[in-house]
Design a protein that fits this description.
heterodimer; A: 659 residues; mainly beta; 5-stranded mixed β-sheet; 39 strands; disordered N terminus; B: 131 residues; mainly alpha; Cytochrome Bc1 Complex, Chain D, domain 2; globular
C-alpha cells in the first residue's frame, strides 16, 4: 500500500525545525551489507565514500582478458549519472528523467525483474526543468532493509520495495516556487534517509532533510544558512576557526536577508563516520553569483594576507559536519568565502585514517572545486595539511593556517560597478579591446541601453580555475596505494557580474546575475597555456603531491572506481572508451570502445557463478554530440553518440569455462 | 588581457559621437530588414543543431532549458558567447568550429525572436567580434 505524505513532523511552518530522538546510529543492514564484497548499497559503495571495491579477481595481470558478457538497452536518451546498486544478485538502475527504476536479474544476464515509473506528469517535469540549471540528471539510489530510496528532479522522495518495485511511500520535499529541486543524492543512517536539495542558480536555500525510512515522514530539516535554529546550530557547534566562533555565524555573515536565497545547496554526495556518528557534505555555490547582493555593495574587506573578514556568506561553498541522528551542526568550514566564481563544492568527502606527522589522524579529504586539496581532522574541522593547488589557481594565493582563511587576489574578485572596483584595483577593468567592441556594437545597434552600458563601464574578471577545477564526479580512494583519484579540468574563463532581482515564483530566467565573456582557455598546473582539457589525477593526501596524471585532449570528467586489483576504472568520455588503468602508475591497461559518452561510475560485483564482473552505463545527453555525416573519421565526437546501454564485462576465462 | 583606465565621460562621449556618426541610417529599419532574412536562415539551423535538446518549439527538454520566454536571451553577449563557446559544466557544446559567424548570427537571431520572444537581431559582426 502506498502512503503519500507532504508534511512536517510537528509543525506546519516550513521554517520551524523539529528534532526527534533517533533510536539508532548507523543503519545495521547497511553496515553489514557494505562489508560484503561486491555488494553496492549506496553511491561510492561504502559510508566512507571511497568508491573502492575489495574485489581483485580482475587485476593488473589479467585485465587485458576482459570481454563483454551481456548488455541491456536502457531506452532513455540522456546522461546517466546514478551509480547502479548491487544487492542479492540484482542490479538496480535509475534513469535520468523520467526516473524509471530497473531491477535486473544478475542470474539471467540482466533480465528485467520489474520496472518502476514514478507518478509525475510532463507538466511537473517541465516545472522542475524551469528551475534546474543542468538538465534532469539524477545521481543516486540507496538501499536498506529491503527498500530502495530515490528522488525525482521535482522533489518527490520515494521508497520502493526492492523485491517487487512496489511504491511504499512518497513524500513531496521541494518547493520550485523558490527554485528548489532534487538530484538524487542521499544516505541511509539509522532509520533516516538523509537527502539534499539543489537550485543554487535560482535562489534556492540549501538544506538537508531526514526522512523516516519506514514512513517517509520528515524528521528534521536544517538549512545551510540562516538563523541558528534553522541551521541546527546549538551548543554542540564547535567550529575550529575564529571566523565561525561568532553569534549567528550563518546569519551575521550575510547582508540583510540575502541568506534567504543564498544558494549553498546540498546537491552532492554524503559520507558518514559510524564511530563519530557524524555525516559530512559540502555545499553549492553562493547565490546569486553576483556578490554585491550578499555584501555591502562594492565593498570588500581583506586582511593583510588577503583573507576575507566580512560577509563571508556562511555556509555556501563550505564543508559541513552534522550529527547523523539529530542533524545538529558540529563543525563547518567555509572553503571559498563569499564565493563569486560558481565554486560549488558538492563533491564527496572521503573519510580516511592517515599517518600524518607521526600520528594517526581521522581525516576528511577534499580535492575541492576551487583547485586546492584539503585535509581536515574530521572530528574538529581543523585543517591538518598545507592546502595545495592540484590545478592552476590564480584567484587564491593560499590558505592561512592560523585563521583558516582562503587568501584572495583582489584583482580576481567581482564587482558590478567600475568605480567600486577602482577603489581596490585596476585589474579587471574593461580592456581597450572590450571597450572598443562595446562602442562598435552601440553604434551598430543604435540602442540607448547599449550606449548607457558603455558609458557605465564595467568589469570583467578572468580567473582560473574557471569555472572550477573539477565537478561532482565521484573520486575513488584506494587503501592499497593511499591515493585519491580525481577527474579534473584545466579551463579558465572570463566573466562579468550583472544586475537583477530575485522573483517569486522563480522562472527560467534564473538568478545568476552573470555573463561569460569570450572564449575559455586552458592552462596546465603551472599556468602555462595547454591544449589538454582535463586530467585524471592520482593525489597523495599525505605528501601533498600529484603522483601521476593522465592528460586528456578532450574533456573527460567522469566518476572513478578503484579496486583491490590495483586498478582504476573510468568511462572515457573523451573517446567513447571504457578504460582500466594501473592505479599505481596511470598506465592504461585495457580499453573497450562503446561509441558513446559516460557520466556514471563503473561498478563491480561477484556474479552468481562466483566471477568478478565490471559494469558501466554508456550514455550521452540528447544531441550533445551531433556528428555530421561528413565528419572526419577521427573527429573528436565520432565516438560519442547518443544512447544508453549497460555493458557488463568479465574475464575471458569465464567464457571459456562456461562453454 | 591588458587593462586600461578610462574615464567614464570619455567612453560616453565617444559613444555619443559614434551614434551621431550614423547620420541618415535608421538602425531600426536596417534591423527589421535583416532580421527576417536571418530568421529564415536560422530556423533550419535551429532544428538541426538545437531542437533535440531545447525542443522543436524552444520549449525545453530534459536535457536543456526552454528558450521560449527565457529572458536570459535578452543579453546578446550572453547568447553569442554561449553558442560560440558552449558551457561544458552545463552540457552545452561549443559551435565556434561548427558554424560561421553568419550562421551563429542567424540561429541566435532566430531564438531571440521566435515563438513569444522579441529580443532583437544579432548581426554577424557581433559574432565576429567575439571570436
Amino acid at each position: 500500500m502506498t502512503k503519500r505524505r507532504n508534511r512536517w513532523c510537528a509543525s506546519a511552518s516550513a521554517l520551524a525545525m523539529c528534532v526527534v530522538a533517533g533510536s539508532a546510529l548507523a543503519n545495521e543492514d547497511v553496515l553489514r551489507l557494505q562489508e560484503e564484497e561486491g555488494v553496492v548499497v549506496m553511491p561510492s559503495i561504502t559510508y566512507n565514500g571511497w568508491n573502492y571495491s575489495p574485489l581483485d579477481q580482475i587485476n593488473t595481470d589479467n585485465v587485458d582478458d576482459l570481454v563483454m558478457k551481456w548488455t541491456v538497452q536502457l531506452g532513455i536518451t540522456d546522461e546517466f549519472e546514478a551509480p547502479p546498486l548491487i544487492v542479492n544478485d540484482t542490479m538496480y538502475i535509475i534513469t535520468p528523467e523520467p526516473n524509471h527504476v530497473y531491477a535486473l536479474d544478475l542470474t539471467d544476464n540482466g533480465k528485467i525483474l520489474w520496472e518502476y515509473r514514478p507518478p509525475f506528469s510532463d507538466e511537473e517535469l517541465s516545472a522542475a526543468l524551469e528551475v534546474a540549471c543542468c538538465g534532469s540528471q539524477t545521481r543516486g539510489l540507496n538501499y536498506a532493509e529491503g527498500k530502495l530510496f530515490m528522488q525525482t528532479l521535482g522533489g518527490k522522495v520515494i521508497a520502493l520495495d526492492a523485491e517487487t518495485g512496489e511504491e511504499l511511500w512518497l513524500t513531496e520535499a521541494a518547493d520550485q516556487i523558490y527554485g528548489e529541486t532534487m538530484v538524487g543524492n542521499g544516505i541511509v543512517i539509522g532509520d533516516l534517509y538523509i537527502a539534499g536539495n539543489a537550485g543554487g542558480e535560482y535562489g534556492a536555500r540549501g538544506a538537508v532533510t531526514a526522512f523516516d525510512i519506514n514512513t517517509g515522514d520528515i524528521q528534521w530539516k536544517y538549512y545551510n544558512m540562516g538563523p541558528n535554529n534553522e541551521v541546527g546550530i546549538t551548543d554542540r557547534f564547535q567550529p575550529f576557526y575564529a571566523d565561525d566562533q561568532i553569534e549567528n555565524p550563518a546569519l551575521a555573515s550575510w547582508k540583510g536577508d540575502s541568506w534567504k536565497r543564498g544558494g549553498g545547496t546540498s546537491w552532492g554526495y554524503f559520507t558518514y563516520d559510524p564511530d563519530l556518528n557524524m555525516f559530512y557534505y559540502s555545499t553549492g555555490n553562493c547565490g546569486p553569483w553576483n556578490p554585491d547582493y550578499r555584501r555591502e555593495w562594492g565593498q570588500v574587506d581583506l586582511d593583510d594576507a588577503g583573507g576575507l573578514e566580512t560577509y563571508r556568506n556562511n555556509y555556501c561553498a563550505s564543508q559541513l559536519a552534522r550529527d547523523a541522528t539529530t542533524g545538529e551542526l558540529i563543525w563547518a568550514y567555509n572553503i571559498t568565502p563569499q564565493d563569486q566564481w560558481d565554486l560549488d563544492e558538492p563533491l564527496i568527502t572521503p573519510l580516511v585514517d592517515l599517518e600524518m606527522n607521526g600520528e594517526t589522524r581521522k581525516v576528511a579529504l577534499k580535492a575541492a572545486r576551487n583547485g586546492y586539496f584539503y585535509v581536515w581532522d574530521r572530528e574538529t574541522g581543523e585543517i591538518v595539511n598545507d592546502p595545495w593547488p592540484f590545478q592552476y589557481v590564480d584567484f587564491m594565493t593560499g590558505v592561512d593556517k592560523e585563521t583558516g582563511r582562503a587568501l584572495y587576489d583582489i584583482g580576481k574578485m567581482m564587482f558590478t560597478n567600475e568605480e567600486d572596483r577602482r577603489q581596490y584595483t585596476q585589474a579587471g577593468v574593461l580592456s581597450e579591446e572590450e571597450i572598443a567592441l562595446q562602442e562598435e556594437e552601440a553604434a551598430l545597434y543604435g540602442t540607448e541601453e547599449e550606449a548607457e552600458q558603455v558609458a557605465r563601464g564595467g568589469t570583467d574578471v578572468s580567473w582560473c580555475p574557471g569555472i572550477a577545477a573539477r565537478n561532482w564526479e565521484n573520486d575513488a580512494y584506494s587503501p592499497q596505494t593511499g591515493l585519491l583519484y580525481t577527474a579534473t579540468q584545466t579551463e579558465c574563463r572570463t566573466m562579468r557580474v550583472t544586475e537583477g532581482e530575485f522573483t517569486v515564483p522563480q522562472t527560467a530566467e534564473g538568478y545568476r546575475l552573470r555573463e561569460y565573456v569570450g572564449e575559455p582557455y586552458n592552462v596546465d598546473v603551472n599556468g602555462n597555456p595547454t591544449e589538454h582539457k582535463s586530467e585524471l589525477q592520482a593525489n597523495d593526501p599525505v605528501s601533498g603531491e600529484t603522483v601521476w596524471r593522465i592528460e586528456w585532449m578532450e574533456s573527460n570528467r567522469t566518476p572513478i572506481l578503484a579496486t583491490a586489483g590495483n586498478l582504476v576504472f573510468q568511462g572515457g568520455e573523451d573517446a567513447g572508451t571504457f578504460r582500466a588503468i594501473d592505479a599505481t602508475n596511470g598506465d592504461i591497461l585495457w580499453e573497450f570502445r562503446t561509441g558513446t559518452g559516460f557520466g556514471v561510475t563503473p561498478v563491480t560485483y561477484i556474479s552468481p557463478e562466483g566471477e568478478q564482473h565490471v559494469a558501466i552505463i554508456g550514455s550521452n545527453r540528447g544531441a550533445d554530440e551531433k556528428v555530421e555525416a561528413n565528419a572526419e573519421p577521427d573527429a573528436a565526437n565520432r565516438y560519442k553518440r547518443q544512447g544508453s546501454t549497460l555493458y557488463v564485462f568479465g574475464l575471458q576465462r569465464d567464457m571459456a569455462s562456461a562453454n | 588581457m591588458r587593462t586600461v583606465v578610462r574615464a567614464k565621460t570619455t567612453a560616453a562621449t565617444l559613444v555619443a559621437a559614434l551614434l551621431a556618426s550614423l547620420g541618415t541610417i535608421n538602425p531600426a529599419l536596417a534591423q527589421d530588414e535583416s532580421l527576417s532574412e536571418l530568421m529564415a536562415e536560422g530556423r533550419p539551423l535551429y532544428q538541426d543543431n538545437c531542437a533535440a535538446c531545447h525542443g522543436d518549439r524552444g520549449q525545453g527538454t530534459g536535457t536543456a532549458p526552454a528558450l521560449d520566454g527565457n529572458v536570459n536571451l535578452e543579453s546578446r553577449p550572453l547568447i553569442i558567447n554561449q553558442v560560440l563557446w558552449g558551457s561544458s559544466e552545463h552540457g552545452m557544446p561549443p559551435f565556434a568550429d561548427v558554424m560561421t559567424d553568419r550562421e551563429i548570427a542567424a540561429v541566435t537571431s532566430f531564438v531571440r525572436n521566435a515563438w513569444e520572444n522579441e529580443f532583437g537581431i544579432v548581426f554577424p559582426r557581433s559574432v565576429e567580434l567575439r571570436r
